[in-house]
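Design job #97: recover the sequence.
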């Protein structure tokens, strides 16, 4: 059976794209109050398993900080206009009192975690997005609190709420960079709303199943995915709740499950607390998240790319393209460079680079280390804010056979106009790709523009045929211009050159 991911927010499950704003509160809050104090403990956990018989002490430490969240929004319904027509009424009867304009409230159930004693609560954005009213129930406290949204970040599915209170049970934050696969974790939250408001939340136990998950089916957070995977049971209502280590420290915010039944099947995902902390700081101090922007289109290094670029390993992010006018271009970074370190942080692939850049703010200066033609270089880059991007649409073009299973065509004015290909891009356009070909296996697509083959510029379809026929290596290295989402730029693709298809 096919597996579908589900957000674990409650009986209405899914991210709502409209995030609430509280501009007046954001602009004035810190003019009146000092920043909140968040407890953090970065010491590694004790991984000795001797004498362990109960997690009750851990639960007593962490569970009081995990709250129930009840967010509601108004849904408007309208009468069916066909019921006013006598022709339709002969089939469906006379309209009843329900065929009227009406409004009703829908409720999303979720969880959150108190991170300061004066009432800041960390939760998942999709639990509170589009909410008209948010109520909070704190364990052991019969009082129900009204919550305000301080800020939301749909890109990481993180939100910050605020309730009025003193001496609330704030959790201690851990260091998610120190957790390891196999570490014991507890998921604490409000699944299915089976407990009463104010009661102790539900606790489930498991291990860290994997780290750095960024290809979860159906979830798209614009490249900022870095999930902790766990087999601790997470169900609808757990979203926004705590994932804690064996010492009761918060290491993640539960956000989604992979399930074919909308229930736990042992595959849950949490946003690492270190990633959430960067977001929290910016939301609390400014009400929004503005991320740094480097201006490159990175890609992971496949074995074929490593061989084509004579790299000793597959570590690093290959720069497929450098967008004009960006910090990367100004610093001298070029297409074909391999970024191996960002401000002292090792980079193993494209997701590492995207996350590293996102953790910095526009205007910050960082050092970027990269390899070019086997030599190591280091440059200083002043990051910018990410600009708006414009979508582009593909159009069909004339075909010419070339390569094994690939058809290409020359870039005539009509083709260039139809595909909105910039004048400075020279090459041949891919008009068809056989899905059983080596080129399809590595992601070559219809509409791609092949700019170079084995580092040789391509100016015509005849050029492409000759260069591919003359290629003698195990792989053919293609430099390809592509529209990917809202971004257009070049990338490298290494195609198996064997003729066994």
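Job complete. Output follows.
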């Amino acid at each position: 059976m096919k597996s579908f991911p589900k957000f674990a927010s409650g009986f209405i499950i899914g991210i709502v794209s409209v995030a609430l704003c509280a501009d007046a509160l954001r602009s004035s809050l810190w003019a009146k109050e000092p920043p909140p104090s968040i407890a953090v403990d970065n010491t590694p956990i004790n991984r000795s398993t001797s004498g362990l018989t109960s997690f009750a002490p851990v639960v007593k430490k962490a569970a009081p900080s995990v709250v129930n969240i009840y967010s509601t929004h108004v849904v408007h319904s309208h009468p069916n206009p066909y019921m006013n027509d006598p022709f339709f009424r002969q089939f469906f009867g006379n309209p009843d009192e329900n065929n009227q304009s009406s409004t009703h409230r829908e409720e999303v159930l979720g969880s959150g975690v108190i991170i300061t004693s004066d009432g800041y609560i960390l939760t998942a954005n999709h639990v509170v997005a589009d909410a008209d009213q948010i109520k909070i129930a704190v364990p052991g406290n019969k009082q129900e609190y009204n919550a305000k949204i301080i800020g939301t970040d749909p890109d990481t599915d993180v939100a910050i709420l605020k309730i009025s209170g003193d001496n609330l049970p704030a959790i201690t934050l851990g260091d998610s960079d120190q957790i390891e696969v196999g570490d014991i974790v507890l998921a604490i939250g409000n699944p299915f709303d089976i407990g009463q408001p104010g009661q102790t939340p539900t606790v489930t136990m498991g291990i860290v199943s994997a780290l750095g998950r960024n290809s979860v089916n159906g979830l798209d957070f614009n490249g900022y995915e870095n999930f902790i995977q766990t087999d601790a049971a997470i169900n609808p209502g757990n979203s926004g709740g705590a994932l804690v280590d064996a010492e009761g420290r918060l290491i993640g915010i539960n956000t989604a499950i992979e399930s074919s039944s909308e229930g736990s099947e042992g595959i849950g995902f949490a946003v690492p607390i270190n990633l959430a902390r960067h977001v929290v700081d910016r939301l609390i101090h400014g009400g929004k998240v503005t991320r740094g922007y480097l201006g490159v289109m990175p890609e992971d290094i496949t074995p074929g790319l490593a061989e084509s670029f004579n790299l000793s390993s597959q570590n690093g992010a290959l720069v497929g393209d450098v967008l004009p006018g960006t910090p990367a271009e100004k610093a001298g970074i070029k297409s074909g460079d391999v970024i191996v370190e960002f401000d002292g942080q090792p980079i193993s692939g494209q997701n590492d680079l995207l996350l590293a850049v996102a953790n910095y703010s526009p205007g910050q200066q960082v050092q970027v280390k990269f390899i070019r033609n086997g030599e190591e270089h280091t440059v200083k880059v002043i990051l910018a804010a990410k600009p708006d991007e414009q979508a582009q649409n593909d159009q069909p073009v004339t075909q010419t056979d070339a390569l094994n299973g690939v058809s290409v065509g020359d870039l005539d004015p009509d083709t260039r106009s139809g595909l909105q290909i910039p004048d400075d891009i020279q090459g041949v356009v891919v008009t068809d790709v056989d899905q059983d070909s080596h080129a399809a296996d590595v992601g070559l697509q219809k509409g791609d523009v092949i700019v170079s083959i084995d580092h040789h510029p391509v100016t015509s379809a005849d050029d492409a045929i000759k260069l591919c026929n003359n290629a003698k290596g195990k792989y053919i290295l293609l430099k390809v211009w592509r529209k990917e989402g809202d971004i257009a730029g070049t990338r490298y693709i290494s195609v198996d050159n064997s003729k066994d298809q």
